Each structure stands twice: as structure tokens, then as C-alpha cells.
Amino acid sequence: MKDNFGREINYLRVSVTQRCNLNCLYCGSDSPDLAEMTADEISRYVKAFAQCGINKVRITGGEPLLRSDIIEIVSSLSKIQGIEKLVLTTNGVYLKKYACALKAAGLSAVNVSVDSLDRGKYKRLTGRDCLPQVMEGIDEAERAKLRLRVNAVLIRGQNEDQAGALIELAKNRRIDVRFIELMPFSDTGKNENMIVKGNEVLEKFSFLKPVQPKKTGFEQSVARYYEAEGFKGRIGLITPVSDKFCDNCNRIRLLSDGKVRPCLGHDDVVDLRGRSDEDLLETVKEAIISKPKGHEFNCGYGNIRAMNKIGG
Ligand code: SAM
Fold first, then answer.
1. Ligand 1: which atom is nearest the Cα of residue 240?
2. Which of 105, 113, 213, 241 makes a 20 to 30 Å CA pair with 124?
3. What average pLDDT is seen over the chain?
4. How far is CA 183 from CA 28, 94, 192, 223, 239, in A?
5. Is the CB of 20 under 6 A from ligand 1?
6. Which of 18, 20, 66, 153 to mutate to test the pocket of ligand 1 (most atoms within 8 A of CB)?
7. Looking at the whole model, is its pTM more than 0.90?
8. Is 70 exceeded by the pLDDT of residue 162?
9. 186 phi/psi in degrees, rounded to 5
10. Which domains does the chain have, with CATH numbers?
């Protein structure tokens, strides 16, 4: 279904919890609201979105693998008519335990957030000494034949030196490694000097050559992709700060408390809870149609909630 600006909105990001087992420097540490949707609510709301043309769903959070019913959630969403692609974003700490069951339940891909391959730096950035578990989780996901991406946020003075090591992951394994510009969701994010812009990565790793972007289907992406000779995976840049991609944005968000947030960069939400089936469908349609034209991180972002609350 198209929004008011003619964009086809077909991608729903569902936050299933605000809770997280890490405390990342840039994510914000708002204490979580615990009014989480039940598995049945998630399924009911996603069905309404599917009726409005959503065909791709990403499960996120907080940390989605903290939900004890995560396999039930994945399994029910994978059976919804119209949902053709179901993927999940995780910090990977519990991925080893769940990878095979997630695949069996109908998940096709996982994005794993890894900001550093240096154990000490990882601990400083995330507050926990979990890098070995995360890497074991990535290995297990590969064995389970889940498509894999690694996402990293580079922060000046913290982990910008990790870019090369992270890029190496894409050399020998079929893993896409993507660098996301730091967004202003925490005190760290509001310090502009700490943002490592996408172009800086390109200047430093000049062997990266652009891949023609796909404009349709599941591969339509806010990331710009690059390849390098002999690499099995690609390198992606997601540049919400230096180069807004709102004209190509095809996504909408369902927060863990049952509210729809049409744009990451705007605080406006609409509540889906307590609605009849008919009202639910109309509300979802209205939320899609009224998606804002774009985000403005450089003004008025003071009230935007921490990323663990929005769902990354
Ligand atoms: N717990 C899961 C994880 O770690 O991937 C999912 C939630 S997390 C909020 C999703 C993504 O948001 C992570 O890749 C994280 O790096 C990213 N993120 C959080 N805060 C950010 C910020 N201020 N700027 C850019 N990316 C951010």
C-alpha cells in the first residue's frame, strides 16, 4: 500500500520487547516499559499489516531473544498469509541457543549487532563481556543456514579502528557487514563529533566498489552496498545522518506496547490496542498513509525515545 508521498510501504519492523541484556553506550538506557504485546496480539496486528500490503517483517527490540516465547512468535508470523520474508535483529548473545529453532520456525535471516571484534572494546561499548558468545552465535546461525548480516555503529574514539577487522568478516564468509551512522538517541549520539560518517569508511577502504542498488522487492534497502574483489559478503553503509534516505523508505514500526510509529525520527504514535478488527484495519491503513515525509535529526529530536524503546 502507498503512503501519502507515493512510497510503497511493505516492510514492518516489530519490536517484541524493550528489555535488553546489554547496555550499549549509544542506545540509551531508558528503563523498559513492561506492557509488552502478547504473542497473540503480535500475530493479530501483523495480520492487519499484511492485509495492507506488508510482506516483509523484521523482529527486533530491545533484545528479541529475551522473549521466552520467541519461537512461538516467529512460528506464528511465518504462517501469516502475505508475509513472504521474516527476519530478526539480535545482539547475538543467545543466538547459539536459538539459531536452529528460529530457522525451523520459519526465519530466513538474522542481523547481528557487533560493534567490535576486540573483546575489551566490545565490553566497554556494550557493558558486558559477551563477544565470544556472540561469535559462537554467528557460527551457529551459519550452520543453521540463516542468511547473516553483521551491523556495527562506529563511534569516534571508541571503535572506529574496528572497521577493518569487521570488513574482513565479509572476506571469507557469506556475511554482509553494514556500518550504521550513529543517530542522536542518547548523550553519545547527540555529540556530532563522535559520528563516523559513511563517506569516511569509503575513503579509508577505497577498494570498495558500489553495487547497483535494487529498487524493488526485498532487496530494496536503505543501505548502499559495496563489494570488493574476492569477498564473499558485501559491505553496506546506512547513513541516516549524512544522507537521508527517506524518499526510499518503505518501512513502518510496531512498538512493543502495541503502538505504531510510522517514522523512526518522529515521536508520533497510534495505539492498536483495544480495537475491533475493522477499526484495527482502518487504523493501520491510516498509520501507513500518514507516514511523515522524512526525519530531521538535526532539529527537534530532544524527545525521541531511546532506541531500545523504539525498536532498532
Ligand atoms: N538487541 C538487538 C540488537 O542489538 O541488534 C536489536 C535492537 S538494537 C536497538 C538494533 C540496532 O540499533 C543495533 O544494531 C544498534 O547498533 C542500533 N542502534 C541503537 N542505537 C543506535 C544509535 N543511536 N545510532 C545508530 N544505531 C543505533
1. 25
2. 241
3. 91
4. 11, 26, 9, 15, 9
5. yes
6. 153
7. yes
8. yes
9. -150, 175
10. 11-309 (3.20.20.70)
